[in-house]
Amino acid sequence: METKDTAAMIPAVDVLENEAGITVKADLPGVSKESLHVRVDGETLTIEGQASLGDTNALEPVYAEVRTAQYKRSFVLSRDLDTSKIDASMKNGVLTLTVAKLERAKPRRIPVRLD
Amino acid sequence: MYASLTRFPGDMLADFEALQRQVEQVIGNRGWPSSIRAAERGAFPPINMGVTQDAVEIYAFAPGIDAAKLEVNVDRGVLTIAGERANELPKPSEKVSVYADERFAGPFRRAISLPDDADSSRIAAKYRDGILRITVPKRENAKPRRIEVNE
Known about the structure:
The complex is a heterodimer. By secondary structure, chain A is mainly β.
């Protein structure tokens, strides 16, 4: 899904890397599994979501700190990551995304020969 | 529905909250009053409040929290939301590098004053997809009603 050119919030993220790959955690309150879209285009990873407040009819705003229902954030991946091995899960409005490293990019010890 | 809660006349892009804050400091916040208990922007969790004909709806955007550990209290018309979000980030070490640490972690407490016509004795709270939704019905005698005109 391509979202319209409306204002989007940049979700807060934690990014960490270990030997297996990179893990991204993103705060996406109100976004369900169905309204979350994770795309990889070349080396760009895009997270997009639409928050829903549930069934509310004729709600008149009194006070608001969150002023848009869209979330969007992109990351440029590097070539040592395997974009075919991306795993995403949503729980309580937090996205956990892992991108595996390519086999050949995993760290290994290079033996030093004695001549 | 949602749009009505999030779109305000003259609103700037949400991306430019910081710029917006500066602008507000210089020219005032365009007649949109902020709550005295929410002076700090970027406090966790952000809160929206709206009213329908029957109830006051409060939304707290608090993802990644165990619902059982959320504490919602009401005292003399002031609603407080408290809890703690665990820091899930491992300590950086030889094996783990942390590149971004933007997500809030730690204890939090927010308070919001309820409108006078809210009936704080009947509050319902639900947690779904990281949003805590608190519904406070309006007092019966505060609901709009039609008054019959007698001949």
